[in-house]
Structure to design on (253 residues):
């Protein structure tokens, strides 16, 4: 059974943190409808969806990915880089504790889950405005007994590492080579985004399908030509808050 932890869109979603794009008005109703479609998609492909209620006073809290990342052996509770987001972990701890042992990133380190890319026993951490070198050191100490190697990765022009590169399957990554150096990922088959779709490198593999935004058809064709089965979701309103398809769920396999 695959479990997907999600959370409803905050009524104050318009007050979300914005770092790398211009702020534009967000229609919370449209954002909720798109999020509902996303959640229904997870359910349709066979996930057991845990729907956490709205956290009204936490505008970014729909983006549950930033509060934790999931390993087979444990769930790592992060310490989000934006102060407004640090309280988001409280309800995630309650949601994840029945399913995994928990380990915690602690002060002074900060870490957003969107900066964490797990590829087998290698964990890559984006050195963004939200995640610090201290987090890399802590993660190595926390996860050393499980055999993980943790490395920091420099980024340019994007919020999180998973804005620039995501896992498609065990041997394939989707990447924007202008935002992260592909030399970090030697040995992987790299599918490069279409140059007209710079935000197209974020995809969510679940079971035997890839959940992918409707906004990037040219990059989608590249994935389909490789034989991947795509299920589209429209997340354009969520994207106004720098959200993407990995951001809105925590996947436990």
């Amino acid at each position: 059974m695959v479990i997907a932890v999600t959370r409803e869109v905050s009524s104050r979603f318009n007050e979300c943190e914005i770092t790398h794009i211009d702020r534009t008005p967000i229609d919370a109703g449209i954002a909720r409808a798109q999020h509902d479609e996303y959640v229904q998609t997870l359910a349709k492909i066979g996930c057991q969806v845990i729907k956490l209620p709205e956290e009204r006073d936490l505008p970014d809290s729909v983006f549950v990915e930033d509060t934790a990342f999931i390993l087979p052996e444990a769930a790592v509770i992060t310490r989000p880089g934006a102060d407004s987001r640090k309280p988001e972990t409280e309800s995630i701890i309650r949601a994840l504790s029945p399913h995994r042992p928990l380990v915690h990133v602690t002060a002074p380190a900060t870490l957003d889950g969107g900066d964490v890319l797990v590829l087998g026993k290698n964990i890559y951490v984006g050195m963004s405005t939200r995640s610090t070198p201290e987090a890399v050191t802590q993660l190595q100490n926390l996860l050393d007994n499980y055999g993980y190697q943790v490395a920091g990765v420099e980024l340019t022009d994007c919020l999180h590492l998973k804005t620039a590169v995501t896992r498609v399957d065990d041997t394939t990554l989707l990447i924007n080579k202008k935002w992260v150096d592909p030399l970090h990922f030697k040995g992987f088959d790299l599918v490069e985004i279409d140059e007209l779709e710079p935000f197209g490198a974020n995809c969510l593999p679940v079971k035997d399908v890839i959940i992918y935004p409707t906004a990037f058809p040219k990059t989608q064709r590249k994935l389909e030509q490789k034989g991947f089965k795509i299920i589209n979701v429209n997340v354009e309103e969520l994207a106004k808050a720098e959200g993407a398809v990995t951001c809105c769920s925590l996947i436990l396999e």
